[in-house]
């Protein structure tokens, strides 16, 4: 596949660098409140999705790190398959609840309470791809806000109702969508809305991001195929 993701990965890495700097700044200002330590994996069970640029970045570094390590990679793929099936069931139930008339806020709160173990979390409760972990993981543990509503890690010591500097995740997400959209245009993909798609990390690991999937070349499909590794 003759696609150079480098310029877009560099934009994404600049965002990651900013995220790390913000986390360290808040941790430095409120050391008694940030409880993140080696071996704490609370954030590694949270349910969240990745934008296209994040998914491609994770996928590429996953395949690169475990190239030639088929046994290790196979174990991770199996864990990703299990996690993906669990996420699918959770989202299917949420969709059915929405169709049945359940309030969206109630559904979102329910999804936020779900726990799905990240397939990259090993038996020592450490990340097998820590250096390349998603931006959501990097903000976990400090106050954030999305849609005007504040959030923080339940293990932290930030006090509810008090004022703290918070990361506006709406701005971060908009930037991720922007980078993803620019990538789709640069690829001249026939799937013009691919930059708006969100996927769980498990699917990002399993998907084969070849030219057919990305809508490049002579493929006849009008929608991105669900092309993954072995799903069962």
From TrEMBL:
**Protein name, UniProt field:** YkgJ family cysteine cluster protein
Organism in which the protein naturally occurs: Desulfonema ishimotonii
């Amino acid at each position: 596949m003759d696609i150079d993701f480098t310029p877009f990965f560099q934009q994404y890495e600049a965002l990651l660098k900013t995220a790390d700097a913000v986390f360290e700044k808040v941790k430095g200002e409120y050391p008694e409140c940030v409880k993140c330590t080696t071996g704490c994996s609370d954030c590694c069970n949270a349910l969240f999705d990745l934008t296209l640029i994040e998914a491609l970045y994770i996928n590429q570094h996953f395949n690169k790190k475990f190239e030639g390590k088929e046994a290790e990679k196979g174990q991770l793929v199996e864990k990703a398959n299990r996690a993906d099936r669990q996420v699918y069931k959770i989202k299917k139930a949420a969709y059915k609840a929405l169709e049945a008339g359940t309030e969206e806020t109630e559904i979102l709160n329910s999804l936020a309470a779900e726990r799905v173990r990240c397939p990259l979390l090993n038996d020592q409760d450490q990340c097998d791809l820590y250096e390349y972990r998603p931006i959501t993981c990097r903000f976990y543990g400090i106050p954030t806000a999305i849609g005007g509503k504040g959030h923080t890690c339940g293990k932290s010591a930030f006090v509810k109702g008090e004022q703290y500097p918070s990361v506006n995740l709406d701005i971060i997400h908009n930037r991720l969508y922007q980078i993803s959209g620019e990538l789709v245009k640069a690829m001249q993909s026939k799937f013009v809305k691919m930059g708006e798609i969100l996927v769980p990390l498990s699917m990002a690991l399993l998907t084969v991001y070849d030219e057919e999937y990305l809508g490049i070349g002579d493929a006849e499909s009008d929608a991105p195929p669900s092309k993954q590794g072995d799903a069962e």
